[in-house]
Amino acid sequence: MKKLAIILAASALSAPAFAGGLSTPVVEPVVTPAPAPVYMPSTDWSGFYAGGQVGYGDIDSNGAGLDGHGWGGGVHAGYRWDLGKTVLGVEGSYDKYDTDLGGNLGTLDNVTRIKLMAGADLGKTLVYATTGVAWADATVGGAGLSDNGYFLGAGLDYALNDKWTLGGEVLAHKFDNFDNSGVDLDATTVAAKVSFRF
């Protein structure tokens, strides 16, 4: 009888252990992985750059017959500051033209510009507005004329890689009373650009 009581007591004490133990089982939390971040290629637009451009210009004036259009090309160099979402810059450019101003009355010979630029950093794409001062040389009636004016414009650059960019730019120029001739010139230029970043 003593043996039976000991066996029953031992069975009663060991039964909870076989039923899962005295402690409540720990439920492991379900871990959901965070969504993968969207990859936005970033480009640091800061630094020096230089390159060339080719473009087309259309010239209108208040002078009789002094209107024309033609192709040109040149070089540019500048520096940009990438401030995160905003990019600021300064650029100098020179374009050589041989644009007939109509009826062999004259030609637009070249345009030199100093630009201030402000744009939006969209990763590999930079969209910007620009303004500045322009100097133009022309030959009218055999006389060399030159004057300064201003321009407004917009452009877009795309980074092919860390060194090379392709871009496009539209500028609207205004030259009032060109070289005291009484002629006002308005010139619109469209250019394709390639630049190397140092």
Largest sheet: 8 strands, antiparallel, barrel
- The ordered H/E elements are HEEEEEEEE
Determine the N-to-C terminus distance.
99 Å
CATH architectural label of the domain at 51-64 and 75-197: Beta Barrel
Radius of gyration: 36 Å
The portion of residues forming beta strands comes to: over 45%
Q: In which range does the helix fraction lie? A: under 10%
Strand order in the sheet with the most strands:
1-2-3-4-5-6-7-8
Find the structural class using helix and strand composition.
mainly beta
Mean pLDDT: 86
| Low-pLDDT residue intervals, each spanning 5 or more residues | none
What report would you give on this structure?
Residues 1-19 form the signal peptide. Its main location: membrane. It is found in: Membrane. With 198 residues, the protein is mostly beta strands. It has a domain at 51-64 and 75-197: Porin (Beta Barrel), CATH 2.40.160. Helices cover 9% and strands 60% of the residues. The chain has one helix and eight strands. It has one helix at 2-18, and strands at residues 47-61, 68-82, 86-100, 106-121, 125-140, 143-159, 164-175, 185-197. An eight-stranded antiparallel beta barrel has the order 1-2-3-4-5-6-7-8. Strand 1 (47-61) and strand 2 form a beta hairpin. The radius of gyration is 36 Å and the shape is rod-shaped. The model has no long low-confidence stretch (mean pLDDT 86).
